[in-house]
Structures are given as structure tokens and as C-alpha cells.
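Study this chain:
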Amino acid sequence: MDCLWHASVIALVLLFLGGSDANPAARRHGQLDVNHKKQPLQTSRPYNIAHRGSNGEIPEETSAAYLRAIEEGADFIETDILASKDGHLICFHDVTLENTTDIGNRTEFAARKRTYEVQGANMTGWFVVDFTLRELKSLRVKQRYDFRDQQYNWKYDILTFDEFILIALHADRVVGVYPEIKSPIFINQHVKWSGGKKFEDKFVETLLKYGYKGKYMSEDWLKKPLFIQSFAPTSLIYISNMTNAPKLLLIDETTVPTQDTNQEVRNWDWAMEGYNHSPRE
């Protein structure tokens, strides 16, 4: 089994630097040949990770935010993976929809508001697990914070995991993906797949479908760079039997228990061990 990397959560948000078209969605990335010779991923310096895309300018985790981040030089694009009611994997940060979509204005969905227990606390809202992919795709996304640029609100929909991967694969240079297995305990409680498969199974199956595999810095990995991250250690252990791609255990505040094992990280020594060294098996 691969060794889990222990690292604190380090997120680099790529801010808008200017010099591009007014409409960031007008990128014809679909016309590019994913098999043509590409500029390789640079490995001589720390990686630039576009956390939820270029969300300082464009609503987070949208196609335009990721396209802008790639244009600005991101080495990796980062996303959070959740699941719809009908089992499709989507790119979305919150388990509820109200903070970054127009769900509150959609009267046809008013009755879907629920209260669920999430990580030991009751939460009320419109949950992604109560909506099919088609319904989620009908929503439009907005900026999370009022102080950010609001001009791109309501222009984009929620991405699927497949769509996110294709954005990286159609870039004109090698761009890695950095997906998080988000809230796996909650997702596995509310979404069921045939054959007894779990959220983690579908997550890895999607990556393998597009050829993401290989140990860190291997030939396969350099062609399609990937880091898998999660706050749930048991999810990372589980997928270690399915992929040898590098995995990172994300750590919250030291008093916040892990999502699955309910353990608090009070001693950071174990978490930072090997942080300044090369990846280990």
C-alpha cells in the first residue's frame, strides 16, 4: 500500500492578472488534440495549484475559472468531488447549494430543503445529494464572496468530474489534476451505486477511465499528473488498493476531528514528518 502523505492544507488561489479576453468562457479548448506533443509539467520548483480555479475573478469550480487558471500558468487545477442523487460525480465544494448557486430563487425546489447531520452537527439547506445531475445542471453559479468580481455570476453551471478532467486534458501543455474526495462519509450515507460500489470506487474509476495512474514522477504520472486528497484517512487507505497515484491527507485545525475516524490532530509532529522530503512509498 502506498504511504499516505501527511500535509497541512496549502491552497494557492490564482488571482486574475489581466491581459486576456473579456469573456473567459470563450476558450475553444475542445478543438485541441489531447495526444499532440505538449510542453511537459515543470518539476524543478514548487507547483502552482489553482484552488477551485481562478476563483478570485470567476465563480469557483466552473469551466471558466479553470480555463482562466490554466491561461495564468497553473500547474494543477484543484477541485472538490461530490455526488448527485443519481450517482454522478460533480465538482462542488459545499454539500449544500445555497452559498454559490441560485437554488434559493428556484421555487420549484423550495420543498427540497432538508436538515441532515454532517460531521456530527445538524445542517439545514438544499443538499447536492437530493438533486439529480440534470437538476443540478439547471442551476447557475455565483461568487462565494461579495468582495469578489460579480460580473460572471449566473453565467456558468456545475461541472461534472468528467468535464473537469477534459479541461485539463485539452490544455495546450501538461496540466495536472488535484481532486479531493469530499465528505465521503456523508456521500456514502445518501447516495447508493449498483453492485455495492462506494463513492471512492466511482472516484477512482473515473480517473482510471482517462488514464490517470502511476507513482509520483513515473512516466505515466508525468503524462497525466495527479494528486488525490481527502480529509478522511480511511478513504485514502481504501483507494490505495485501486491506484498507486500519490495521496495526501488533509488536516484541519488540530481540535477538529477527522471526518471518519473522529480523531483530533493535537501533535503536528507526525503530520509534518517528511514534509520537506521527496515523496516516499
Observations:
- Helices lie at 63-71, 133-137, 161-169, 184-190, 199-209, 219-223, 233-239, 268-272.
- Residues 1-22, 25-32, 274-281 have pLDDT under 50 and may be disordered.
- Strands lie at 5-6, 49-51, 76-83, 89-91, 114-118, 121-125, 159-160, 176-181, 228-230, 247-249.
